Each structure stands twice: as C-alpha cells, then as structure tokens.
Amino acid sequence: MGIPAIEVKDLCKTYRLGEVNVEALRDVTLTIDRAEFIAVMGASGSGKSTLMNILGCLDRPTSGTYRLDGDDVGTLPRDALAGIRRKKVGFVFQGFNLLSRMTALENVELPMIYESVASSVRRERAREALRAVGILDREHHLPSQMSGGQQQRVAIARAIVNTPSLLLADEPTGNLDTATSVEIMRTFQGLADERGITLVLVTHETDIAQYSKRIVRFRDGRIIADHPVGAP
Amino acid sequence: MNLYAASKVAYRSLRANKMRSILTMLGMIIGVAAVIAMVAIGAGANERISAQIASIGSNLILILPGSTTSGGLRSGFGGVPTLTMGDAKAIGKELPAVGLSTPSVRNTAQVVYGNQNWSTIIQGVSPEFFQIREWMLTGGRYFSGGDVDAAAKVAVVGQTVADNLFGEESPVGKVLRIKRVPFTVVGILERKGQSPQGQDQDDTVIIPVTTAQKKLFGSAHIGTVGTILVQAVDGPSVKEAEKQTTDLLRQRHRIGPGQEPDFSVRNLSEMLAVAEASTRIMSLLLGAIASVSLLVGGIGIMNIMLVSVTERTREIGIRMAVGAREKDILLQFLIEALVLAVTGGAIGILVGVGGSSLISLFAGWSTLISPGAIFLAFGFSAAVGIFFGFYPARKASRLDPIEALRYE
C-alpha cells in the first residue's frame, strides 16, 4: 500500500482554559490508508473535533507527530499549514459554512482564488465539482436560496475542487433530515470509491457511521475502539 | 490571491454594507474636501499678494530724503529735500549692482479736460520708471529721454484717470490741463489695480520729472527730487545694490562715518517678502487644521474596519479553512480600507474643488487649486487608508482559524 495517507503517533493536545489545562488528546496513535473511509465517533468533549482540527492542519499538536502523505506537518508554521489546507485538505462542516453573499459557483471557486488559478480555469473546475455532486443547476443561487442538503453539496464541491487527498467531514449531516443525510452519505461514498480520496468523518450518529468502512471511537481524548464496520 | 481578486472581494463587501460604507467615506470626503478648499484659499491669498508684489516691480529699493536735524528739531523722512537729480543719475550709472533708477517727484493736483476735472497724483519720473514698474501701455507711447531733457509737456495717464476724464474717448493726442498747464497725452497705461497698501495705482498721471520740477510744482530747492526708485540687476543683488547706493550717497552728500545720513534706503522687496511669508504661514495653518479632519476620517475608517472584522470573523475562518494565508486576509481587509479611503478621497477632491469655486463665487475670495494639492490630498487619503486599515487587517489575519470558525 506504500505510505499511508495519515500517520499519527503519540499525539497530545493540551488547551489552557483559564487556570485549567484541558487534555483534549492523550497519546493518540492512528494510521489511515489512502482512499480509506473512516468514521470517528465519540461524545462531545471526547477529543474527536480536536483530532479533526489537527488532521485538517487548522491546529498543531502539543506533542507527537503527524505525517500527511509521509510529510511531517505537525510543526509547520501557519502559512505552510494554510498551503497544505489549500492543496491537500478539504473541509465539510456541520453548518455548511458557505459565504452567504456569494453564489454556489463563487463559493466553490474560493479555494482556487487563494491558489491563484486563472479565472476561466477556475470557473471550469468549479462547475465540474458542482456537477460531480449533482448540483450544477444551482450554480448561480445564493446559499440562502438553497435547502440544507443543496448547501451541503455545494460545500462538498468546494472541498473537493482543489483535488485534495484528504477530505474531513465534521458532522456533515447534523443539520439535515434523514433522507437528505442518506443522499449526502452516498455522495461521500462515491467520492471515496471513485476519486481515491481519504475520507475522515466525524459523527456521533451510529447510522451515519455505517456508511464508512472503519470506525474509531474516542472517549476522554483516547481511542477506545478501532474496528471495521460490521464488527461489534 | 492577486490584487484584482482582492479588490473585487473588497468592493463586494463594501457594497453589501452600503450605508455604512458611505458614512465612513463621508469622514474622508469632508477631510479631503476641507484640505483642498483650505489650501486653495491659502494659495489664492498667496497668489494675490504675489501679483501685487509683481505689480510694484521686482527687486526694488526706495530712497527717501531726510531726516535732518537742524537746531535740535528733527524732521521726519522726506521732510527736507536732500536728494538731487545728480544723485539719481549717479546711482543709475555708477553702481554695478543697480540696473535702473528713476527720480520721482509726487504731488496731488487737479487735472482738467473739457468740462471734466479730477484730483489725482502727478508723478514726475524718467522713462526708466515704466521699465522698473513693468508697466505696459494699452495705447500710445511712453515719453522719452528727449522729452525729459526738453521738459516737454507730455503725459502718460493711468486707467482711472482716463476713465474719469475722457470716458469713452481715446485720451491719446488730447490736451489736458494740470494746474492750468496744458499737457498732451501721449500714452495710456494698462490697469495695475491695487497696491499692497490698498491704493489705486491707476489713479495717476505720469509726466517727465523735469517738467514737473520746472513747469508744475516748482521748488525752493532747484534740482531736488522727492524719492529715487532703484532696481537691482537681479534678486540676489538687492542687498548689494542697497549697500552700494548707501555708500554712494554718503559719499556724495559728504557724510562721514558715524554721522547720521540725510537719506534712508528701504528695501521694498524685503517688506513685501514679509507679507508673502505671513500669508504662507496662514495657508499652512489652514491646511494643518483641515488635516485634523482627515485624521478623524481615518479613525472612522479604522473603527468601521474593526467592526467589520469582528462581524466577519466566521467568514475569515472559512477563508482560512480553504487555504487563505495570513497575507491574503491582510490584503483583503487592507484593500477594503484603502478603497474606502481612496473613494472618499476622490469624492472629497471633487467636493473640495467645487466648494472652493463656490467660495470664490460667493465670498469673493480668490482661490487657487493646484494639481500638487490634489495629488497630495489623494496620496494622503491613500496613506490614511493604509495606516488606519493596517491594524484591523492585521487583527483579522492573526485570527485563529478554529476560533474564527466557531464564532457565532
């Protein structure tokens, strides 16, 4: 299989909350292969969001190493992390996080603006991404003119438009009804299968986690279980 | 992110908050307009003074007779006629730093033409007078050196006199009477307007100095003149000309070292330079006061940018999550501030230019808008935008993406 997509070793993250130190992650070691679809589960405060932020290069670990595609990215400076987010990571959030004043197409173009892609290429690639998630017919709509499911598709298109190797989804169905959730999860499955994108899904819903191939459970900043889907 | 993309983003977000953007710009508009108008007023005043100085003539020295002390009684300057035609000629011919000089005899007299009469200032001078004062003709000719030698009864009249005595008629060739002595008008001078002291310089009749002495005013002291007007060869030579003139006159009047001279030398250019300097200080002061409002406008921009950064914390977080670097965010907010300041500045220039023309129209003050002032105001507003936009932009770029994404 070669180099794994994600290689996390003895990862610790400690926050200072006022006078108290909060240990959000304690010695987490985890390896995720390329094109793997993994669900991270746990109650709120279990450390799964912190892991997500570190995997997404939004945050740096207090100690331990994080290798993304074989490169140690845990200690990079802010701007280098921004570069990794731009080129290798796509985010999908629970609250969609689209820019409300921009149309669907413009939202998808956003990561490419920071990559200084020419505007004609940008447009073409953004439309491709919208087509891939089946929402091209809404390209000129503002987020406020779309349903939650449609907005989440736009957000997914934005996350994949720079052809990242890692897609992180933080409770992507948390604000959606069941039918829409199913559609969104199918979309994710398709992306993992067809594009070979490594997919890390954070959720606390067992049904949603079933769409993945492997489940990692967190409690109090530690991994308490790691098993393929279907196993207990 | 390139500059064009950043400008587009900035423009959109400013448009999204139209009212707020306009009000913020208003601060800049008022500031820039005030600076432009104030500088225009100052420059206008300055230009008027300069024009008046030019109307007097440049690099001038005035020699006045007196004061003398006789038996403990001191007469004021000009009290005793001590300057002579000989002095005037010697100054003009012998001194290297002096370009031109003319004696001058002044007196007020009634001038009559037909059934009109007018009281005006009669000046007896030599033809160099016209050159020194840089006084052009609108018709006819100047009188010549020959006219002076012959004490010819010819006159050159100022516009005010021409208007009052001749009305619509052309004065050239007409005969007017000064104290019953007939003079032929040979030329009309162009209008000079007010002197820096507020006198009408055109209210005068100019005749050869010899004619004035012999045929008009007479004098207890034959061959004396009222004043001597001297022009230095150029600006830097004025001081030297002053010194040379003083030395020459002391020698001619046989005044030993340590003795009080019976004449005084005044540097007119210097006096006028003082007047010019004081208006310059005034215009500087006006500009400085107006700049304060520009500063206040800048603080307005900073204020609104800080609000904007807070409001858009989540947007900043999203942009960071998709890969915006610190400098991308910095650039975006900096350009937003810059667009506010520069747009405000551009409108302010229009308002300032319009305002100063209104001021000169209604208040009658002369205003002068220089391209330099416009460039300066524009550049200054851009600088204000960058200066006051930098802190909020930096604050935005330093946000923690996780915190920013979590911000409600």
Walk me through what this model shows.
- The complex is a heterodimer of chains A (232) and B (408).
- Chain A is α/β, with parallel strands linked by helices.
- Chain A has 7 helices and 10 strands.
- Chain A has one domain: P-loop containing nucleotide triphosphate hydrolases (Rossmann fold), CATH 3.40.50.300.
- Helices cover 34% and strands 29% of the residues of chain A.
- In chain A, strand 9 (214-219) and strand 10 (222-228) form a beta hairpin.
- Chain B has 408 residues and is of the alpha+beta class.
- Chain B folds into 2 domains: 3-52 and 283-406, no CATH class; 81-261, no CATH class.
- Chain B contains 13 helices and 14 strands.
- In chain B, the strands form 3 sheets. Chain B has a 6-stranded mixed barrel with strand order 5-6-11-8-10-9, surrounded by 4 helices.
- In chain B, strand 9 and strand 10 form a beta hairpin.
- The A-B interface holds A 53, 56, 58-59, 78-79, 82-83, 85-87, 91, 93, 97-99, 101, 110-111, 113-116, 158, 162 and B 1-2, 5, 12-13, 16, 314-315, 317-328, 401-402, 405.
| Domain module tally of chain B | 2
Rounded average pLDDT of chain A: 91
Runs of chain A in which pLDDT lies below 50 for 5 or more consecutive residues are none
The top level CATH class name of chain A? Alpha Beta
Number of strands of chain B: 14
Computed Rg of chain B: 33 Å
Biggest β-sheet description of chain A: 6 strands, mixed
Query: Order of strands across the widest beta sheet of chain B?
Result: 5-6-11-8-10-9
Proper CATH architecture of chain A? 3-Layer(aba) Sandwich
Radius of gyration of chain A: 17 Å
Q: What percentage of amino acids of chain B are in beta strands?
A: 15-25%
